[in-house]
Amino acid sequence: MNDDIKKILLTQEEIAAKVKELGDILSEEYRDKNPLVICVLKGAVLFMADLIRQMNIPCEMDFMAVSSYGSGTESSGMVKILKDLDTSVQNRHVLVVEDIMDSGLTLSRLVELLRHREAASVKVVTLLNKPERRKVDISPDYSGFTIPDEFVVGYGLDYAERYRNLPYIGVLKPEVYTK
Ligand code: XMP
Ligand code: MG
């Protein structure tokens, strides 16, 4: 599996230090708010699990799975809900946890939906941010790392459902795509 990686972009240690930093900030921000922390499946699972362990405040978690309609690797902006929340967001402070903000289409739709459902507040924390690729006017409220426009895998992120379990984030060798 490691042979498929061209370079390591973020090591396990770098990720852990950043997650701790974000956890400290979010613990301050959400103290006494009992936030509903929403994990966007599946990519954000590892980040979510590590992040909430660095949030040393009461919080609840829930999960959502969405998919963008459209072909290929480009988001179309139409978001289909594959798994909805179990919890009502009405009057709750909601924190959406995502692996990566790319075009921004998925998160802009999701935030819109949660606001429509009358959440008290909706904020987004994303581990990775690719601002070069943005198609809509949105930026994460909290972001771990800004990365260049390269397809990355590991720490939850996949290529064809593989590599999610790598403990670091890396760039795939081009021959893996074309094989
Ligand atoms: P948008 O474009 O709506 O989409 O911001 C975000 C989703 O696209 C996926 N994505 C990636 N997945 N490596 C991945 O494994 C990447 O470099 C990458 N860029 C975007 C991801 O699922 C994210 O939730
Ligand atoms: Mg994702």
From TrEMBL:
Top-level EC class: transferase
Keyword field contains Metal-binding: yes
Catalytic activity: GMP + diphosphate = guanine + 5-phospho-alpha-D-ribose 1-diphosphate; IMP + diphosphate = hypoxanthine + 5-phospho-alpha-D-ribose 1-diphosphate
Cofactor(s), names only, from the UniProt record: Mg(2+)
Cellular component terms (Gene Ontology): cytosol
Keyword Isomerase in record: no
Ranges of residues in domain Phosphoribosyltransferase: 9-159
InterPro entries in the cross-refs: HGPRT, Hxn_phspho_trans, PRTase-like, PRTase_dom
Keyword terms, alphabetized: Cytoplasm, Glycosyltransferase, Magnesium, Metal-binding, Nucleotide-binding, Purine salvage, Transferase
A Gene Ontology molecular function term of the record: nucleotide binding
Location(s) in or outside the cell: Cytoplasm
Family: Belongs to the purine/pyrimidine phosphoribosyltransferase family.
NCBIfam families in alphabetical order: HGPRTase
Protein name as it appears in the record: Hypoxanthine phosphoribosyltransferase
Species: Brevibacillus aydinogluensis
Gene this chain is encoded by: hpt
